[in-house]
Amino acid sequence: MIEIDNVVAGYTAEVDILKGMTLQVQRGEIVTLLGPNGCGKSTLLKSIAGFLRPRSGSIVLESKDVSQVPVHQKIQKLGLGFVPQTENVFSSLTIRENMQVGGHFMSDADCKQRMQELCTLYPVLERKFNAPASSMSGGERQILALARALMPRPRLLLLDEPSAGLSPKMLQEVFKAIVQVRDKEGVTILMVEQNAMEALRMSDRAYVLSMGTVALTGAANSLMSDPQVRELYLGGRAA
Ligand SMILES: Nc1ncnc2c1ncn2[C@@H]1O[C@H](COP(=O)(O)OP(=O)(O)OP(=O)(O)O)[C@@H](O)[C@H]1O
Predict the structure, then answer these.
(1) For strand 30-34 and strand 2-9, is the pairing parallel, antiparallel, or unpaired?
(2) Its pTM surpasses 0.80
(3) Residue nearest to atom 29 of ligand 1 (CA)
(4) How many CA within 13 A on the CB side of residue 24?
(5) How many Å apart are CA 61 and CA 27, to the nearest integer?
(6) Residue 12 Cα: closest atom of ligand 1
(7) Is residue 173 part of a domain?
(8) 153 in a domain, yes or no?
(9) Is the ipTM above a cut-off of 0.95?
């Protein structure tokens, strides 16, 4: 689905944040990026999305090199969806209006049909359809952010810390919504998470990043049961 090969990227000419990042995500997988603060997880997502162009290396999406393609083209034409960590819904707009923003490039009829599909998948959206997003809980807002990104039927969804700021109960609801979209719509998911153990439980594989490169990778199950990984990256918690 996506192959990232030796990507180098940074925000200023002097400093590389990604220092030769290589990873792959297969179609239909849920893959999580873990690692300490500042290791480059969000920067990698921004590079894949097209907010930041790599200095070198390649990003190949469904056999097409998209390294230099800007974000709006990836969303409109190449089947990419992106949910940023913050400011991911418009609080003063209703749920319907937020979803319409996601359907900006779609015809009115298709946009309407897609809103219905997503309201069936996530009933909370239908219940509050004409209420402002400011009336939603943190978890509900994350589900709305997910739905907005899903409007144009992306094939690859990038999620930056979907559980940020959520209670354990809301986290479970949001993770369930993520698994649902993979299971019911076949969307491939690459996400950044700080809640490492919970994220591994719902992932197929994970990459642990360190200082702009991949330190470790493996199946989620084997990472969770590796004592050294637990000690170093999962706070020493038992699986
Ligand atoms: N817009 C920016 N301009 C300049 N430097 C930035 C910018 N965004 C991030 N950085 C720097 O890039 C490095 C990697 O940041 P990034 O946000 O990718 O880390 P992260 O692994 O996602 O961290 P966290 O878990 O804290 O969100 C950090 O040193 C950060 O200060």
Answers:
(1) unpaired
(2) yes
(3) 38
(4) 6
(5) 11
(6) 4
(7) yes
(8) yes
(9) yes
